[in-house]
């Protein structure tokens, strides 16, 4: 217990006080040698009288409190809204029931390991387990940066467990004949969605990108579509990659979209409106929700007698057909973004 005076760095003429009291240490830059020794003398007296107190230690919050702070101050500002929602859901459903009431510095590697094993034992997929691991690690990594903890206990835990990977969903691209059958069936049972699905199969755009398209994105002269945004559950965001790209229009897609625009103009006149809605594929002028389109997609597959596939497999179909037509992989990659 005591106070020491040191020049730091040596030869600088700057003096520091190093204080050791009841197992705790702190330091304070003072200035010149004379002032440092004078203050050291005063502090020695206070320490002897037990009237000197070091700065109080930081209060370590519970994991549940800090996780919410991490979501609001970092994830919500720096990541996509969909990422924020996904992380919130993972925390609430898989992580907080086990780790929520523990203080940040109480969480050890064994706690994280046991949670991973618990999720695996309940039959959750490896992707859910990995996402849970990532959320815990991200939150504790943020706490490490704020010096609330001294180590992130998550690092390497999942790798050591060597949990078996679940098999990925099989990619099911359609053949050219199946695409033709699908579009023919769509024209028969859901003609209002024909232009949408034709555009999907001829551009390979993601579902959210298709739903966010505006007429201003179409370049009729150079025959391309500019893809720069995505739509999901009431929100417009950037594309998944955050980049804008150009997607070529085939002559057939050009004609289908032109006919779709003409039909929208006709509908606008019937309803007494002077302009068509800005959104290309819409319902009463507003964006169509992703789940609504997925239901229509499955309905058309059933009507056509085609096996059930994911909407995302339209992208794989687009890529497969381009490659089978001898397009270069680089071109296909650029088109898909």
Walkthrough of the structure:
With 337 residues, the protein is of the alpha+beta class. The protein has three domains: 2-48; 63-161, DNA polymerase, domain 1 (Orthogonal Bundle); 176-336, Intergrase catalytic core (hpI Integrase, Chain A). Helices cover 51% and strands 12% of the residues. The chain has 13 helices and ten strands. The chain has helices spanning 33-48, 63-78, 81-99, 109-121, 126-145, 157-161, 176-189, 194-203, 207-211, 251-270, 290-304, 313-324, 329-336, and strands spanning 2-7, 15-21, 24-31, 218-219, 224-227, 230-232, 235-237, 245-248, 282-283, 286-287. The strands form four sheets. It has a three-stranded antiparallel sheet with strand order 1-2-3, covered by helices on one side. It has a three-stranded antiparallel sheet with strand order 4-5-8. Helix 4 packs antiparallel against helix 5, helix 8 runs antiparallel to helix 10 (251-270) and helix 12 runs antiparallel to helix 13 (329-336). It is elongated and about 95 Å long. The termini are far apart. The mean pLDDT is 86.
Short description:
The protein is of the alpha+beta class. 51% of the residues lie in helices and 12% in strands.
Give me the strand/helix succession. Answer: EEEHHHHHHHHHEEEEEHEEHHH
| Tally of distinct domains | 3
Structural class: alpha+beta
What is the beta-strand fraction? Answer: 5-15%
Mean pLDDT figure: 86
- CATH H level of the largest domain: which superfamily? Intergrase catalytic core
CATH names the topology of the largest domain as hpI Integrase, Chain A
Q: Look at the structure and give the CATH class of the largest domain.
A: Mainly Alpha
Question: N-to-C terminal Cα separation, in Å?
Answer: 64 Å
Mass-distribution shape: elongated
Largest sheet: 3 strands, antiparallel
CATH architecture of the largest domain: Orthogonal Bundle
Give the spatial strand order of the biggest sheet: 1-2-3
Percent of residues in helical segments?
40-55%
Q: What's the Cα radius of gyration? A: 31 Å
| Low-pLDDT regions | none
Discrete helix count: 13
Tell how many strands the DSSP assignment holds: 10
């Amino acid at each position: 217990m005591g106070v020491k005076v040191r020049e730091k760095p040596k030869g600088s003429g700057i003096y520091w006080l190093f204080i050791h009291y009841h197992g705790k240490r702190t330091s304070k830059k003072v200035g010149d040698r004379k002032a440092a020794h004078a203050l050291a003398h005063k502090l020695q007296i206070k320490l002897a009288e037990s009237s000197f107190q070091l700065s109080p230690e930081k209060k370590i919050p519970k994991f549940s409190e800090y996780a919410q702070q991490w979501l609001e101050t970092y994830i919500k500002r720096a990541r996509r809204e969909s990422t924020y929602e996904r992380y919130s859901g993972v925390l609430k459903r898989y992580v907080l029931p086990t780790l929520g009431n523990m203080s940040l510095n109480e969480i050890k590697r064994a706690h994280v390991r046991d949670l991973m094993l618990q999720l695996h034992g309940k039959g959750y997929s490896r992707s859910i387990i990995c996402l849970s691991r990532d959320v815990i690690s991200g939150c504790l990594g943020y706490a490490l940066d704020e010096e609330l903890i001294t180590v992130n206990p998550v690092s390497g835990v999942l790798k050591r467990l060597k949990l078996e990977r679940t098999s990925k969903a099989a990619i099911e691209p359609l053949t050219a004949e199946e695409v033709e059958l699908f579009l023919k069936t769509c024209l028969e049972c859901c003609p209002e969605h024909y232009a949408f699905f034709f555009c999907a199969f001829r551009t390979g755009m993601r579902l959210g990108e298709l739903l966010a398209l505006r007429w201003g994105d179409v370049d009729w002269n150079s025959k391309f579509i500019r893809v720069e945004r995505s739509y999901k559950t009431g929100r417009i965001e950037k594309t998944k990659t955050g980049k804008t790209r150009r997607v070529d229009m085939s002559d057939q897609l050009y004609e289908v979209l032109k006919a779709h625009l003409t039909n929208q103009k006709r509908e606008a006149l019937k309803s007494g409106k002077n302009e068509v809605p800005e959104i290309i594929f819409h319902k009463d002028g507003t964006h169509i929700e992703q789940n609504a389109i997925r239901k229509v997609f499955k309905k058309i597959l059933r009507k056509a007698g085609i096996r059930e596939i994911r909407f995302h497999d339209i992208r794989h179909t687009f890529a497969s057909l381009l490659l089978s037509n001898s397009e270069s992989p680089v071109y296909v990659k650029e088109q898909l973004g």
